[in-house]
Design brief:
Blueprint: E1 9-11, H1 26-29, H2 37-42, E2 46-48, H3 54-66, E3 78-81, H4 85-93, E4 102-105
Parallel strand pairs: 1-2, 3-4
Length: 108
C-alpha cells in the first residue's frame, strides 16, 4: 500500500489458501496476513483478487507454445515422467529449493 499511489489499484497474484501449515509465521499458517487497513482506506486504494480463469486461456496458450510463439520453459524446474508425479508433488509441497514448476509427461 505504501508503494501504490493515492486512489491506485493493487492486484494480488499468487496462490493463497485458507490455511498454510508450512507458512513462515502463525498468521500464514491460519491463511491470514497483517494488513494496514487504515493506510489502505486513507489512500483510497482498490484491490483485486481471485483465481485466474485458466479454462479461458488454456487452448490459446497451448497453441502459442505449440507454434513456438511462446516458450515458457524458463519457469520449468523439472521434467518428470508421470509415474514420478508423487515425488514431484512431495518436493513442491515441502517447498524444496529449486522445485517451482514441474512438467509431467505421460508415457508415449
Amino acid at each position: 500500500m505504501r508503494s501504490v499511489r493515492f486512489t491506485g489499484s493493487i492486484g494480488v497474484v499468487g496462490v493463497y489458501v485458507p490455511a498454510d501449515p508450512g507458512g513462515p509465521d502463525e498468521l500464514a499458517r491460519r491463511g491470514e496476513v497483517a494488513f494496514d487497513f487504515g493506510l489502505y482506506w486513507f489512500k483510497g486504494q482498490r484491490m483485486g483478487t481471485g483465481q485466474c480463469p485458466v479454462k479461458a486461456y488454456n487452448r490459446y496458450l497451448r497453441e502459442l507454445i505449440h507454434t513456438g510463439k511462446a516458450n515458457p520453459s524458463f519457469v520449468v524446474s523439472h521434467n518428470l515422467p508421470l509415474d514420478r508425479a508423487p515425488e514431484g508433488y512431495q518436493h513442491f509441497d515441502a517447498r524444496d529449493n529449486g522445485w517451482t514448476k514441474v512438467v509431467l509427461a505421460p508415457a508415449a
